[in-house]
Amino acid sequence: MHGTLIYREQPAQISRAAVDGDDLWLSLDELKTATGWELRPQGACLGDLCVPIPAGREAEFVRDGGTRLNLTALGRLLGQPVVHDAARAVWFFGEAARARASGLSSLEAPDFTLPDLDGRLHSLSDYRGKKVFLVSWASW
Amino acid sequence: MIAVALETGGAATAGEWIRAATPTYPCLIDERHLVAELYGMVNVNCAVWINEAGRIVRPTESAGASQAFRRHMDRRTYQLSPEGIADKQLRRRVYLDALRDWAMKGGASRHALSPDAARERLRAPTEEHALAAANFRLGQHLHQQGHREAALSYFAEARRLHPESWNYKRQTWELEERGKAAGPEFWAAVDALGDTPYYPRVEMEGMPPSAG
Fold this sequence. Notes:
The complex is a heterodimer of chains A (about 140) and B (about 210).
Chain A: E1 3-7, E2 10-14, E3 18-20, E4 23-27, H1 28-35, E5 37-40, E6 43-46, E7 49-51, H2 58-61, E8 62-63, E9 68-70, H3 71-78, E10 82-85, E11 90-93, H4 97-105, E12 113-115, E13 121-123, E14 132-137
Parallel strand pairs in A: 1-11
Antiparallel strand pairs in A: 1-2, 3-4, 4-9, 5-6, 6-7, 8-9, 10-11, 12-13
Chain B: E1 2-6, H1 11-21, E2 27-30, H2 34-39, E3 46-50, E4 56-62, H3 69-72, H4 82-105, H5 115-121, H6 127-144, H7 148-161, H8 166-176, H9 184-192
Parallel strand pairs in B: 1-2
Antiparallel strand pairs in B: 3-4
Helix pairs in contact in B: 6-7, 7-8
């Protein structure tokens, strides 16, 4: 399947995915390229973070001789919201509510990077050392 | 100060407002409403106070906005009555005085909350809110790619999953039809609130308790 995968806000084109209902099976190379996740002996890993594949549920997560991982199943395990548009082959994997809540409860202001009107990017972290009054508005 | 425009239309819709304001502070454009998701903002204007160490000292709250428009605005002309204008000015003044106090005194300001007090005011997202954000983002992506009709169904799902979000309602109504964000659907939704405030009360010394 050819399509678009938006994972952690990063869009990527995928071309060798297999779709089975709501499940998105990625080859390990596309998995790494599009999401950063890898399949290692200890489980699915993103950098130093490794999530063991639940015992007895291996077939839900890995198939084709260990060459594909079910990204949707991994998302469910992590509590990520997953939405896909089948007609246009677009998949969106968001951030889990519990991850957002945990980040907020630390009171560390979540970082973001956005453009100004001239397209220049600003990150909240650029303003560390200054008080920041962060305010939202809209034209609508 | 960092102002963030929650504008799926991007610079095309936010630009004229930013240029008119001739700002001396960064005005950023957030087509994905990412900042709203990160900070639990469900309306505009909302604000967060962040200290020099990058710590939240006042979580998301209405930035001194008045909901006097509910009872004191002519819905044809959008004109506020003198009573409505007075309420709007009072809330803005109280909020700005508090903000200036914090800017001057930092952690010693009575308006800078302790970590425990700040945590108590946090509104943690639910799984429905996270799923609403995912639907909004997919809709926003499709809209940006020119799949307008397809996008609308995801926007509707975002509104259903997170009905407290006026950002989702008004942004997506406006994408459906220009002017709809302040049209009959908006007023019907506001009226349906009944005694529920449009802007949750800002717990701040000197801020009037009534809803305007």
